[in-house]
Every structure is written in C-alpha cells, then in structure tokens.
Amino acid sequence: MATQIERFDQLDLSSGLLKSLEEIGYETPSPIQAACIPPLMDGRDILGQAQTGTGKTAAFALPLLENLDLSDLRPQVLVLTPTRELAIQVAEAFQSYARHLPGFHVLPIYGGQSIFLQLRPLQRGVHVVIGTPGRVMDHIERGSLLLEHLRTLVLDEADEMLRMGFIDDVEWILEHTPSSRQTALFSATMPDPIRRVAHKHLRDPLEVKIKSATSTVEAIRQRYWQVSGLHKLDVLTRILEVENEFEAAIIFVRTKTATVELAEKLEARGYGAAALHGDMTQPLRERVIEQLKEGSLDIVVATDVAARGIDVSRITHVINYDIPYDTESYVHRIGRTGRAGRTGNAILFVSPREMRMLKAIEKATKQKIEPLVLPTLEAVENRRITQFKQQVLDVINTEGLEFFGEVVAQIEQEQNISAHEIAAALVCMVQKERPLQLVDKKAPKAEFAPEPREERKERFDKKQRTKGDFSQVKMVLYRLEVGRNQDASPKDIVGAIANEGGIESKYIGRIALYDDYSTVELPDGMPKEILMQLKKARVRQRPMNLSLAEQSGDWREEKPRKQKYEGRRDEQRPGADTRKTSDKKKFSDKKKFNKR
C-alpha cells in the first residue's frame, strides 16, 4: 500500500470499533489487517494467504462489522470454518470487537450441539453467522438459515476444510448464496483445489500474501506455562524468584491499564518495576529505559508499541504475561532478550483456550516451546534462604560490626539469652516483608498446578489414571444447575471445569446427571478465584452456578438414571435430537450429518 498504516484510526473505522480495540489492547494493525481492512470495507473480494496467528480474524471481522446494517436482523455475513472450536473462537472475536455496537448479534452453529438450540436465535434474527460447513448445510436445507440478503461470505482456513473433506460442501454452500455477495478466502497454503474454488467464485480478487515470522534467536530458551488454578501474579513472582541468571525482564501485557496495575503489584512485592505504555511522554519513557539500563529498575511492564526500540543488553528474560494476538508480535517481543551474544529466556503464559495460538507460534517460528515446570513453594523457600545467607555473609565481610556486636552482648548479659537466640529473633524481624518460611511442613496443601501435556499424555497412555490419583486430595460434592433436560453430558461438564477453572481432569471426580441439575466431585479447599470462575462458567449455553451440594437444598431425593449408551458417554446424548424421521430423510448421509 502507498501509505504506511501504523494506527487503527488510519483505517476509517467507526469510533465504536476503535474504542473496542483500545479496550482489548490492540495498538498497531498487523500486516494482514493493514492490507485487508481497506479493500474489504470497499467491497472488494480478497484471496488471502496467511498462517494462523497473523491476526486475520480481525482483518475480516472489523471491516465487515463496519459495513453492517444493524437495523436488519437477517444474516448479512456468513463465515465458514473447518472446526467447531474455530467457529466459537471467531464468534467470540466478533462479539468482542462489536461490544460498542448496540443491538449486534452473532451466532456460532456447529455439529455436536443440538440443532434446536440454534433454531431460536436464527428465528429471532442475527447479523453474523459463523459455522462449520456441515451444520450450515443442515440449516440451509431446513430453511432455518436464509441467505437471500447475505452481503459477505468468508472462507476461513480453506486448506483445512479441503484436508477434512469439506470442499464439496463449501462449493454447495457457495452455490446457495447470492451471486452479488462479497467473498473473502483465507488459507495458509494455496493448493490447486483451493485456487479453482477461488477462480470460480471470487470476482477479480485482490491477492494478499503475508509471510509469517519464521526465525527467532537460537540463543533464546522458550518455555510456556499453561494458566491453571494458581493466580498468574503468584506464578510470575515464583518464576522471578527461582529463575537462574535473572537480571532484568520485560513483561508484556495487552493494555495500557494493565502495565500500571501489574507494575504496582510487583513493586508491592518488593521488585523494582515500572510501567511503559503509549500514553507516556517521550522524556518519561526515556527515563524508564535509562533506569533499566543502569540497574535501578529490574522489570519493565510494557505494551508492544511502547517496547519498540528497546535495546538493553542486561535483559535476561521476556515474559509474555498476556499472549500476543499474532506470531509476529511474539517474535518481536522475545527479540528483546538474547542480545549482544548473551543467552536469553522467553516465557509465555497460555490459557487452555489459547493453546491454538501456542501451536501457531511453534509452527511459525519452527521451534518447539517446552512446558515450564512451575517452581514449588519449597524451591522458592530454599532460594530465599540461600540468598539471605549470602546477604548475611556479605555484611560480615564488608561492614564494621563492632557497635552491633556490643548491643548483642548487652542483650545476652541483661536478659541471660544466648547469641543464637538473639540472632534467630533478628532473622525473624528482618524477613517479615519477605518470609523465609513459606510451607507449613505439618499441613501440606495440594496445589492445582498444570501438568505438562507430554507428561499427561504419557501417564494416560500407561493407564495410570486410577482412584489413587485422589488419595492425597479430599473431594467434596458440588451441584451444577444444568442437567439432562439441558442436554448436558459428562464431557460438557469436564470441559467447562477444565477450561474455565484450569483444573486438571485428575482432580475432577464422579459426575452424576439428573434432569435439571448435576453433581460433581471436586477438591476441597479450592481458591475463591477458581470457585467464582466456575460459578460463571457455562455448559450448553447456561451458567453452571456451582455451589456446595449440601447448601443446595434436598438434592438427594431424585436418583440419577442409569447411564445408557455407555460406549458413547463422551458424545452428545442420542436422544437430544428429536427430529421426526421424515426430517432426517433430507440428509443423504447420516454418518456425515453426525460428524458435522
């Protein structure tokens, strides 16, 4: 493009979208966003080649939201995705960008969920539909998805749809949409079948090819920690305390507000930390960087834009406290360490729902990111004790202690107390701000730390997931306000608890399904943060409203029915889809329908 686009406000987006982007933490358009947003807003067809993790969802979502007629509740945008997970992710992105567009409605439709749960929102009206090809076909054939007023069709990850055998379905859907529609096709690769679809169904498309960053500094050790029950701040401080060769760090977050909040929290825990964000004046920004260089600051908490141009050789660690939105940002971030011939460390915090981005980063950088073993409290305690001992020795070797020795001698004589006891009392006084004893050896507590995926897979492969897993953890019974009448299944409940609460499956006990609620065994003494998160978590589009079973009324009156179809307990309950046989005849391949 002729003009270099460095800010979203250069893209003629409405104030509502710009406000959403600022709140989310987007600062600079990625290459594919800068290349695709203007032509899509102008109605051009796009043929885009870009990897996952380049920011392509925003590249098509933002211009399509800009062009919506919010007064018209008939589907105006249809996005086809290869998997249900991606459909949900794209729908959430649309909802997030449109938070300041009043009356906006988006609906993900996919197989594995009762089709009847999707009919009512379609009847009420939606602006944007995100769906897998099979389920979109089902709704078109039923007449529940009407596309006469469709303005734009997006094919996301077209090569994946080809690989999964959906390309014929995609062509069928294309033929059932208005010929006047705008079309955008995105694919990581462009095999011949995809190019044939593009040439047949796209009108004079603008071709956009974005190369992903494919190299990182080999001297950088890359690790990730999967966000679990422990608070991210607690994990961060543990890592900072135990990491070898730690000298200075840049911690990346998404928003300006988060830089200030996290820097203040780290300062309160005894770290020399400062925020660095785009609203700071240039003199103040330069002062922070100078303090980092000279050693009066050890940690800078920054956004991507604010960290541009930082070249400080003493930075040993880059910590992605918030995962970046695209792979290019990740490469730029970790390039702040491992400079001047030194080794560096990059640590990435990843929530269960962000594992897809982790894989995209590994693919783009062509490097494996190893799981980080979370330091135990014992390890932190031992490190603090070692450091304290060294501080004591340094004082003995460098300071004049005659006066203080006399004070200790006076206490010994006046109180008949040994120097050993006096020294222990002084240690107790000094360490109150940074306790040396962190673990109650008499009453150890289980921690809900994540288990690296490789170790978890190996353990499951060896069939070691037995009742013995729970021998060290007391389990209590909880009630969930969803049951069989809401089409809930054990798989749904386990998925919601694992994803939203970050609790490993080995800590999820027996599940019993009733008509309008369910019960599940979970570890006793879970942190309040996890309980609040689980209370808000949703199963089959309904809040779980998790509560202790004994506080939920006389729930024992109803006995759970015997589980049928034991071989299918991880699939949708067979009775959930109650369509008449005549309706099912519309589909030529029942197996294919179920797969959708």
TrEMBL record:
Q: Which parts of the sequence belong to the Helicase C-terminal domain?
A: 234-380
Record's compositionally biased regions (Basic and acidic residues): 553-586
Q: Name one GO cellular component term.
A: ribosome
Q: Where is this motif: Q motif?
A: 6-34
| Domain annotation Helicase ATP-binding: ranges | 37-208
Residue ranges of region Disordered? 445-465, 540-596
Which reaction(s) are listed as its catalytic activity?
ATP + H2O = ADP + phosphate + H(+)
GO biological process, any: cellular response to cold
- Predominant location: cytoplasm
Does this UniProt record's set of keywords contain Protease? Answer: no
**Pfam families listed in its UniProt record:** DbpA (PF03880), DEAD (PF00270), DeaD_dimer (PF25399), Helicase_C (PF00271)
Q: Where in the cell is it found?
A: Cytoplasm
- Where is this chain compositionally biased, Basic residues type? 587-596
Coiled-coil stretches are none
Please explain the role this protein plays, according to its UniProt record: DEAD-box RNA helicase involved in various cellular processes at low temperature, including ribosome biogenesis, mRNA degradation and translation initiation.
Q: Which HAMAP family match?
A: DEAD_helicase_DeaD
Regarding protein family, the annotation reads:
Belongs to the DEAD box helicase family. DeaD/CsdA subfamily.
What is this protein called in UniProt? ATP-dependent RNA helicase DeaD
Its gene name is deaD
